[in-house]
Amino acid sequence: QVQLVESGGGLVQAGGSLRLACAASGRTFSGYPMGWFRQAPGKEREFVAAQRRSGRGTYYGDSVRGRFTISRDNAKNTVYLQMNRLKPEDTAVYYCAASSSLANTDLLVTTRGYDYWGQGTQVTVSS
Questions:
Q1: In DSSP terms, which residues pair with 50 in a beta bridge?
Q2: Which of 12, 68, 10 minimizes the C-alpha distance to 37?
Q3: To 10 degrees, the CA torsion angle through 100, 105, 109, 115?
Q4: Taking 90 as the threshold, does the pLDDT of residue 31 lie above it?
Q5: Which has the least CB within 10 A, 38, 40, 46, 112?
Q6: Which helix (H) or strand (E) holds 7?
Q7: Alpha helices (H) along 1-127
């Protein structure tokens, strides 16, 4: 049974940083894309970042590019999201996602590109 478990969320002041982690179990995703999405109350789930197997393509949503960094540790079957210069509008539940196929980029920036999802971790940025 595949499980994705996020950690690292919390409350931070605007301008601060947080590092999210997502540990996968049940299968290895080292050869497949993994990503992060977020969902604020009353809004649709939004693409944040995705990465194919390390060094093979990294993608960011427009609202986070230059502030967030996605990385992977394939030995630990874990993906990270380093979030810097956080803003109140970054407040949301952040979800980790993993794909079981080599989806094209058009799909990887949408929820349709992923087969497995974590339960989410809350990030709250105070002004």
A1: 35, 59
A2: 68
A3: -10
A4: no
A5: 112
A6: strand 3-7
A7: 105-108
In terms of Cα–Cα distance, which of 113, 125, 110, 121 is closest to 23? Answer: 121
Residues 6 and 96 sit within 8 Å (Cβ to Cβ): yes
- Above 70 in pLDDT, residue 104? yes
* Residues in Cβ contact with 24 at an 8 Å cutoff, skipping those fewer than 6 apart: 2, 3, 4, 34, 77, 78, 79, 98, 116
- State the Cα–Cα distance between residues 81 and 2, nearest whole angstrom: 20
Reply yes or no on whether the pLDDT at 55 is more than 70: no
Q: Which two tokens stand for residue 33?
A: 């894309």
Do 2 and 27 contact (CB within 8 A), yes or no? yes
Computed over every residue of the chain, the mean pLDDT equals 94
Which tokens belong to 120? 């989410």
Residue 54 scores a pLDDT above 70:
no
